[in-house]
Amino acid sequence: MADYDLIVRNAKIVNDDRQIEGDIAVKDGVIAAIEPGIKGKGRREIDAAGKFVLPGGIDSHAHIEQKSGFGIMCADDFYSGTVSAAFGGTTTVIPFAAQHRGMSLRQVVKDYHEAATPKAVIDYAFHLIVTDPTPQALGQDLPALIRDGYTSFKIYMTYDAMKVSDYQMLDILALARKEGALVMVHAENHDMIQWLAHHLIEQGHGAPKFHAIAHARVAEAEATNRAISLARLVDAPMLIVHVSEIEAIETIRQAQKKGLKIYGETCPQYIALTADDMDKPGVQGAMWCCSPPPRDSAAQEAVWEGLKDGTFQTFSSDHAPYQFNEGGKIPKGDKTTFKEMANGVPGIEIRLPMLFSEGVQKGRITMQQFVALTSTNHARLYGLYPRKGTIAVGSDADLAIWDADKDVTIRWKDLHDNVGYTPYEGREIKGWPTVVVSRGRIVVEDGKLNAERGSGQFLPCASPDSSKPLGQAAPELQAMSRFGAKPLF
Ligand code: DUC
Ligand code: ZN
Ligand code: ZN
């Protein structure tokens, strides 16, 4: 009779704060013991000598089975999306339940559960995308949903179909502050992009490479600064997602230096691609288009600096999978201009290996930073810690066993998403997770999947510490209460 369901022996166990050597014993999906030379037997034992064992990755920015603002459906459903995540060492995903205008948030959440429950192979939570902050949404639906475990939401400052006004942002931030949710912001100046795009297209410059010109750096910088200013007014924490450019990074850094609760996220495309990748014949360059766009090598360096010095808390995939065809990336075929292209690149499977190879192996970040950026900080920021994001007794047994010496050439045919291409085709990677364990189940081993459809579980998120205000709203707001005005939150 076995004492444990699984024992991983002789592991170099890495958490965000230290590395130790020892064994990990798992019972009923949870880590039961961590020590050298665990006595007793496992029903299954893995010798991890020479390998690193890391907390399973958490990808807190992925679009799965989601319709874009233009109504284009993602190429990955909750099966292919989570299978692909698992093969890349990720054991928890936090995709979006996306409200489009006119939709009830309650119904949106119900629909995403119906999509995920029968298909997901790893655990998942949901952020909400809020595009329609009606009195019903702000007054009833969001407070109730936050209590039910949807404690973060993304809002857009651009896209006609998605954007909220500054006024609406303040409403949403004030609500999040009061109810204990974290607001994630897509920060780009809508009118700058529209104006540039209009003039580019009018002059016949509709090719994908012009996407990077329309989405000017200053549009990201301005919106980042404005978003942070709005957060300051109402003393609400905020996370800026998919940050790509130098000035925005510096703005986030300076806000953090002032003690504000402003967090930053970046993604593989901003360390591994540049705008030059979009410069291809015809509409081919669309395969590399995402928003904000990849910039240049100076911006890549600034992103690395932000990953190193802690300006960025999370490294997420922003997996936005669209096939390169008329139902996906290029809705009008060869006639598609950058304005109609579906926005986004796939990356859910290469996220961890790319950062491991480019970051840890090349000495840019430490193993501990890698764990923080790809797992622990996601759990902390979004209310899943310590159940997720750490290798500790009592935590879920979500583990990735890494072969740091494994050489891999990225080929789409070897990945498990449903996109049909990867923007990283042919890249050489060193290090890949060869065994992936989700709640004690070995879901990937030596290139094979061993997980049932629907075996992933929904994770309600607690109201995270990251969302707690500092208690220092702008002086004018404080003054309002002194002269007897009704408190705004
Ligand atoms: N924003 C995202 O978060 N993902 C893809 C495209 C976009 O605009
Ligand atoms: Zn976005
Ligand atoms: Zn995204």
UniProtKB/TrEMBL annotation:
<dbReference type="InterPro" id="IPR050378">
    <property type="entry name" value="Metallo-dep_Hydrolases_sf"/>
</dbReference>
<dbReference type="InterPro" id="IPR006680">
    <property type="entry name" value="Amidohydro-rel"/>
</dbReference>
<dbReference type="Pfam" id="PF01979">
    <property type="entry name" value="Amidohydro_1"/>
</dbReference>
<dbReference type="GO" id="GO:0005829">
    <property type="term" value="C:cytosol"/>
</dbReference>
<keyword id="KW-0479">Metal-binding</keyword>
<comment type="similarity">
    <text>Belongs to the metallo-dependent hydrolases superfamily. Hydantoinase/dihydropyrimidinase family.</text>
</comment>
<keyword id="KW-0378">Hydrolase</keyword>
<feature type="domain" description="Amidohydrolase-related">
    <location>
        <begin position="52"/>
        <end position="443"/>
    </location>
</feature>
<feature type="modified residue" description="N6-carboxylysine">
    <location>
        <position position="154"/>
    </location>
</feature>
<protein>
    <submittedName>
        <fullName>Dihydropyrimidinase</fullName>
    </submittedName>
</protein>
<dbReference type="InterPro" id="IPR032466">
    <property type="entry name" value="Metal_Hydrolase"/>
</dbReference>
<dbReference type="GO" id="GO:0016812">
    <property type="term" value="F:hydrolase activity, acting on carbon-nitrogen (but not peptide) bonds, in cyclic amides"/>
</dbReference>
<dbReference type="GO" id="GO:0046872">
    <property type="term" value="F:metal ion binding"/>
</dbReference>
<dbReference type="InterPro" id="IPR011059">
    <property type="entry name" value="Metal-dep_hydrolase_composite"/>
</dbReference>
<dbReference type="InterPro" id="IPR011778">
    <property type="entry name" value="Hydantoinase/dihydroPyrase"/>
</dbReference>
